[in-house]
Amino acid sequence: MPPVQQGDLSLLEHSTSKELLQSRIPARLAYVWTDGTPRVVPIWFHWNGREIVMASPPKAPKLKALATNPNVSLTIDDNTFPHKVLLIRGTARLEYVDGIVPEYVAAAERYFDPDLAKGWLSQLRGMVSSMVRIRITPQWVGLLDFQTRFPSALAE
What's the whole-model pTM score? Predict the structure, then answer.
């Protein structure tokens, strides 16, 4: 059976994708700033099985850019050889939420140990009264593992 082609959403079911989606590695979110120049920011995420969900304080500059041009890409990749890289393209949808976005809480509990997460979330509640949920439904998925899946530049 030939390998699943880059771009196919079923790559999200690959064991390497699942590993990266459950990891403590921040996603790198790429978007276009309002002046047309590219931006990339590291950001915590939560995978709910259908969407990448992130959160941001409502005054974050990236929200203005995402409202203007919601086309985004993100990558989740590790630093150990052989490298594992998950690439996702999609459209960001913004939703204002009172309090802390629940998926942000889930991300904090994954990135930190329970006590540190509890402390950070308590501190954050004192800093913001609302957040913006950023949902990205994958429309294109790529996966590299440098064992069976290589960049297209290395294909014959």
Answer: 0.91
Mean pLDDT (the chain) is 92
Nearest to 40 by CA among 74, 63, 9, 17: 74
**Rounded CA gap, 26 and 55, in Å?**
13
Distance CA 136, CA 90 (A): 6
Cα distance between residue 17 and residue 143, in whole Å: 7
| 40: its two tokens | 């990339």
Task: Count the Cβ atoms, other than its own, within 10 Å of residue 12.
Answer: 17
What is residue 51's DSSP assignment? -
In the block, tokens 């590219």 appear at 38
The residue to which tokens 């942000």 are assigned: 104
Work out the end-to-end distance of the chain between its first and last CA atoms, rounded to an integer number of angstroms: 18
